[in-house]
Amino acid sequence: MVDYREILRLKSLNYNNTDIAVSVHSSRNTIQEVVNIAGALKISWPLDDEVSNADLEEMLYPDRKSKNENRLIPDYPKIHRELAQKGVTLTLLWTEYYAEAVAAGKSPYMSTQFNDNYRKWARVSRATMRIQRKPGDTMEVDWAGATITIYDPVTGDTTPAYLFVAVLSCSCYVYAEACPNMKSESFINCHIHAYEYFGGVTRLLIPDNLRTGVTKNTRYETIIPRTYKEMAQHYDTAIVPARVKAPDDKPNAEGSVKFATTWILAALRNEHFFSFEEAKAAVAEKLEDLNTRPFQKRVGNRRLAFENEEKEFMQPLPNNPYEPAVWSTAKVQNDYLITDGINKYSVPFDLIGEEVDIRTAKDTIEVFFHSNRVASHTRVMKAQRDPIRRKEHMPLAHQKYLSYDKDSFHSWAKDIGMNTEKVMEFFLTSEKEPEQGYKYCVGLMKLAERYNPSRIEKACERILSVTTQPSLRSITTILKNGQDQIPVEKASEPAASTGKRSKGITRGAAAFRGGDAE
After folding, report:
1. CA nearest neighbour of 193 among 211, 207, 178, 171
2. Which pTM value belongs to this model?
3. Superfamily of domain 138-313
4. Phi and psi torsions of 300, nearest 5°
5. For residues 294 and 301, is the Cβ–Cβ distance under 8 A?
6. Distance (Å, rounded) from C-alpha 126 to C-alpha 79?
7. 162, 133, 148, 169: which is closest to 253 by C-alpha?
8. What tens digit of pLDDT does each residue of 404-430 get?
9. Every domain range in the chain assigned CATH 3.30.420.10
10. What is the distance between the terminal CA atoms of the chain, rounded to a whole angstrom?
11. Are 47 and 8 contacting, i.e. CB atoms less than 8 angstroms apart?
């Protein structure tokens, strides 16, 4: 309100309008207008102490009272609730208020006064809360600097337990959990537990620039670890890391970390924990005390603020909680296998030499190439002697090799012919174990691919006609020389006499004895 009393007092001391305007923070036009109207109404300084600025305004501007009585007063609590909705601004709400006032035949506030009045209402109500932080909008996370000491009951050695803290920016409702380490798996699990504790998800997630949460954060680019980003996508929230060395970007987390350090870690300083489970249970108990501890400067506590002001604005939880997974990269070797550290799993053989992304979860292991899933296996937690393969991942030759067994060899030979079957049987039974003859059986099958099956049958017939112990080498020689083309009966006949004299030794044995020839 304009300070009418001070204007009249300073004017009576002969100050000019410029000096008066600077002193009372009003415009020179307003000063001149007040002086002119007061002069016309014969109102001058000094005034009685009982005369207030409101009384002076009613005397100087009698028409304003009736105008204010006809003004539509905004519903400020409703405005505050509407601001919590995504995309809603004061400008939009003023537009709707203006239309409502006109429709009701009342005078509306202009936008500047509308905004100022709302902010004044917010400052004097419990909604001081969140002009910048809307209910259900952000969750800030961080690690506490202090730790809890765990004592080994046998050796007396100590190990630290770390404290994860998540806080809702509007109500300052806190979730805290003790963790054995600050690795990615613990970090992700704490987020899952925090969402379950709050019973909902915020629109934004603000972590500090810790390695498990942010790979790179510069003015030009932000790179989030794939596991963390995947978790955020599952819960339909967006990760907006705080700027480097900018704690003001997450003031509630900073304050809540200090608060949790005092009321959880410091409160447990005299306790001796001999297992991590004991420490975790103690932290959970202190967390409830923290959230129900009364505010110092406002009515209620963190839990009541959450339930009354923020809970209804949280996004719903997904049907299933996120299953933590670890991402890694690997180059596919010649055996087209990748590993989860326990067992080896196959990928398509045509990825040999390529770099693939591996997603390792509790029950599954998935392989991605250029963001496309190319393989998926059920994860086996017990170490296996042999790799876990899929037939479709193998080259055709490897698929054939795995299909080799005694029955398949017999079946193939039977389709070729009786003699081939006998040779195959000899290969499988000539050694102590059938597997010792597998390479000869495979060799015979490859000969059938090079030559036609009918020639294989004839070659086997030929070799069996001269020996009961056929060899792969002999069969190969027969095929190369074309001996399988000669009928067995003809090949076994003695060579016909040509009547020609032998060109060998023609003299008898007597010629080489001592003495004269007779």
Report:
1. 178
2. 0.51
3. Ribonuclease H-like superfamily/Ribonuclease H (3.30.420.10)
4. 95, -165
5. yes
6. 14
7. 169
8. 778 888 888 888 899 898 998 898 888
9. 138-313
10. 166
11. yes
